[in-house]
Design brief:
Helices cover 39% and strands 12% of the residues. The chain contains 14 helices and 12 strands. The strands form 3 sheets. Strands 9-8-7-10-11-12 form a 6-stranded parallel sheet, sandwiched between helices. The protein has a 4-stranded parallel sheet with strand order 3-4-5-6, with helices on both faces. Strands 1-2 form a two-stranded parallel ribbon. It starts with 8 loop residues before the first helix and ends in a 13-residue tail after the last helix.
Length: 398
């Protein structure tokens, strides 16, 4: 996906990097999926082609028949070939490839075009299994791959190690990828960053028990724990949810809210523009980041820190690389609503603790900005341009 059609930070980071590179005079062409959020116009960004097909539908990966998988692969490969032939790029950047045709990586490799993959979640792992085409040839079925490739002209295997340089959003994600049987050798880390407009901390209001959650509504994000913790807090405590979600998850969350009798204390705002987010961070007493899963990185706590809003989080995954308990946040065990409630009561009862976390957050956030990340993206792509690779196979590509 590519903004304004997006669900989270991955796509927004991509858009920011493209804008930065265009500002340097680079000619950029964006190839994204044809999915569109209902009622959201495409915008007037130049050279954005929303034409790729993917295997994701309605927050799931349905089982598709062989003919449909073949049609998706042929479409995507023909589209890629058209753009490569037309533009003749010096370098290709891969971004979010979850649910996408990983054979696109292989086709770029076979053409000898340098590539950099910016990996901000674990698509090198799960993406190999949500790719409806390639998974036809895993395991014993792999004996059919050469014959199928000759008949269709479509890659049936991917040489991941030789397809790109992989730049990960965190050391955590990098180590997880290195543990996969992909033989990756050319890797790096570039932390994604927040828009500099979030570095505008305002004077904090007195504590009023106004709690904020920003992000996708998904069980892995610990949203149920946030609601369960609210039920253990004083009656004046309120919780506002901001972000995008699967309507099914919204229904489940609303059911939890009703079951706990919290209808008057929970507000669900949906997505909000950047300016509105800044106001929400400035007005909240604390930002909740109760993720249960291994978060690849996490921009939301950094946005809150830059705005001077104290953060209460689990510190799972890559977010643990910048979250420090008692310094710039309070940490609690993932899945423990009681511990989350206790951390919030501790915060409410100690102005000194709130001020210490605020100061720690204000010192942390400027280290991770869009400008710093975008400069790293530019450096990676320019370095790769000087390393054009020879074609390594005569097998049919796109």
């Amino acid at each position: 996906m590519y903004p304004p059609h997006h669900f989270g930070g991955y796509e927004q980071v991509w858009q920011s990097a493209v804008a930065h590179l265009r500002g340097t005079g680079a000619r950029m062409r964006v190839l994204a999926v044809d999915f569109r959020l209902p009622g959201v116009p495409d915008g007037d960004q130049p050279e954005v082609h929303r034409e790729l097909h993917w295997y994701w539908r309605n927050h799931d990966f349905p089982v598709l028949g062989l003919h449909r998988r073949l049609a998706i692969e042929r479409h995507n490969q023909q589209l890629l070939a058209h753009h490569l032939d037309d533009m003749r790029p010096d370098v290709v950047g891969f971004w979010s490839m979850g649910g996408m045709s990983h054979s696109l990586l292989e086709s770029v490799r076979r053409r000898g075009v340098p590539a950099v993959a910016f990996v901000h979640d674990e698509w090198l792992d799960y993406g190999r299994h949500t790719d409806g085409w390639l998974k036809l040839f895993y395991g014993r079925k792999g004996v059919l791959a050469p014959a199928v490739e000759r008949m269709t002209g479509l890659p049936t295997r991917v040489t991941y190690a030789g397809a790109a340089r992989y730049v990960f959003v965190s050391e955590f994600v990098r180590q997880r990828a290195l543990a996969l049987p992909l033989g990756l050798t050319d890797t790096g880390v570039a932390h994604s960053g927040i828009n500099e407009s979030f570095l505008q901390a305002r004077e904090r209001p007195p504590w009023r028990w106004k709690l904020l959650y920003v992000g996708r509504l998904h069980p892995d994000k610990g949203i149920a724990d946030a609601v369960a913790a609210l039920a253990q807090l004083p009656a004046e405590a309120s919780l506002t949810f901001v972000g995008s979600w699967d309507e099914r998850e919204a229904v489940r969350l609303q059911a939890d809210v009703r079951r706990l009798g919290l209808e008057e204390r929970v507000q669900m705002l949906g997505q909000r523009p950047r300016a509105a987010l800044r106001d929400l961070y400035a007005d909240a007493d604390a930002l909740l980041f109760p993720v249960r899963w291994e978060e690849p990185w996490g921009l939301v706590p950094l946005e809150a820190m830059g705005s001077g809003c104290p953060v209460v989080a689990t510190g799972r995954g890559g977010s643990g690389e910048y979250l420090r308990d008692g310094d710039n946040c309070l940490l609690f065990p993932a899945g423990d609503a009681g511990a989350l409630a206790a951390a919030l009561r501790r915060l409410a009862n100690s102005p000194e603790l709130r001020e210490r976390l605020r100061a720690g957050g204000l010192a942390t956030a400027p280290r991770y900005t869009e400008a710093i990340f975008n400069a790293a993206v530019e450096t990676e792509l320019r370095a790769r341009c000087a390393a054009r690779q020879p074609v390594t196979t005569s097998a049919a590509g796109a």
